[in-house]
Amino acid sequence: MSDKKNTSYPKEKINILLLENISDKAVKFFQDAGYANVKKIGGALSEDDLVRAVKDVHLLGIRSKTQITARVLEAAKKLQAIGCFCIGVNQVDLKSATQHGVTVFNAPYSNTRSVAELVIGLSVMLIRRIPDKNKAAHNGVWLKEAKGSYELRGKTFGIIGYGNIGTQVSIMAEALGMKVIYYDVVTKLPLGNASARKTLKEVVSQADIVSLHVPETNATKNLINKNVLKNFKKGSILINYARGEVVDLDALSKSITDGQIAGAAIDVFPWEPEKNGDKFTSPLQNLPNVILTPHIGGSTEEAQENIGEDVSNKLFRFLEMGATTGSHTVPSLSLPPQEGTHRILHVHKNVPGVLSAINTQLSKNNINILAQYLKTNDEIGYVVLDVDRKLSETAFRLLKEVKDTIKVRLLY
């Protein structure tokens, strides 16, 4: 925090709301930085409750359950940034957030180890058919047999989606003596002795275990469907710790019942309960050699602490420096502090002439720009300006009058 500066807006008036039991490390981070008004709520809020709660909030922290809709963003007049304390941002209406000039951050790498370790552990459990033996023992049945139980060593591990988590799984699987093959829509260099395949079909037809590590998009919805499942190697295992819409669970249930698939571990579902204790149903319940977990792939103490630190730091740097590195909405900029200046942040529609209008307004009033950075995306432009501190209030007022302005903030 060596580059910390006093913001123009008093810290005690900046409201920070953290939902879904975000790590206390995030709360402590802001409190240690002088932001005393930090409120933490244990669960997610409904849209109606959220509309009421965000009215005076400047920074909002969420996890995967809270849905940030266009209606919520319209109600959040003071909102500067949203921190998604998880790896995804699909719970936020990014288009609307962009149009409102709200910066959205996440932590795409902080829980990769937690997920990768669990995928390997599940592979051991399923290939040894531990779920069935465990259930039998709990029911008072002694089921000591080697039939259908195998070692991982020498087997082929197939990875669909060779990104941050997929590559870690790849390294760990190979360390256990497995052959690793993978498929990704983007060309990725292999780690270790892993080898790429040109099609999804090649991977699922050759692999003893298939693990999914893809995002939720229109292209990945029901990626694993009844037709694809027919191409799986008979007796193979499927693991989905990625996204709930990626697998057709009814088709998977039939494949397990028919003996095409020998086991599965599923952590994410097309529909998930809102809170602990709510009723949960799935077509995979009570099937042999199936492990169902409640979306806890990245839920370890270490991962939550890492996520809390990562996202909090991004929010803090944005709040105090205007840095948007890692943003999914406002263009990425990080301008080092300039001595003897005041900094103004200007978010505007990405139309021709705005930067010229900014400079014209300031030059007409003899306001010298000491540093200026501009970056745009398809929707908006983001300008960071450092101006003479004696004239910063005037500059701030003038920039608010520039046509196509979305949001202006006098940072310090």
Give the fraction of residues assigned to helices. Answer: 25-40%
Percentage of residues in DSSP E strands: 15-25%
Number of strands: 16
Low-confidence parts: 1-5
Cα(first) to Cα(last) distance is 16 Å
Order of helices and strands: EHEHEHEHEHHEHEEHEHEHEEHEHEEHE
User: How would you write the strand order of the largest sheet?
Assistant: 8-7-6-9-10-11-12
Main sheet, how many strands, which sense, barrel? 7 strands, parallel
The value of Rg in angstroms is 25 Å
Give the overall average pLDDT: 94
From the spread of the alpha carbons, the general shape counts as elongated
How many helices does DSSP assign? 13
Structure class: alpha/beta
Give a quick set of tags describing it:
single chain; 412 residues; alpha/beta; seven-stranded parallel β-sheet; 13 helices; 31% helix
Walk me through what this model shows:
The strands form three sheets. The chain has a seven-stranded parallel beta sheet, with helices on both faces. A five-stranded parallel beta sheet has the order 2-1-3-4-5. It is an alpha/beta fold and 412 residues long. The chain is elongated and about 85 Å long. The chain has helices at residues 24-32, 47-53, 70-75, 94-99, 112-127, 130-138, 164-175, 200-206, 226-229, 249-258, 301-321, 354-364, 392-400; strands at residues 16-18, 38-40, 59-62, 81-84, 103-105, 156-160, 179-183, 195-196, 209-212, 236-240, 261-266, 290-292, 341-349, 369-376, 380-388, 405-410. It contains 13 helices and 16 strands. The protein starts with 15 loop residues before the first strand and ends with a strand. Strand 3 (59-62), helix 3 (70-75) and strand 4 form a beta-alpha-beta unit. The longest helix has 21 residues, at 301-321.
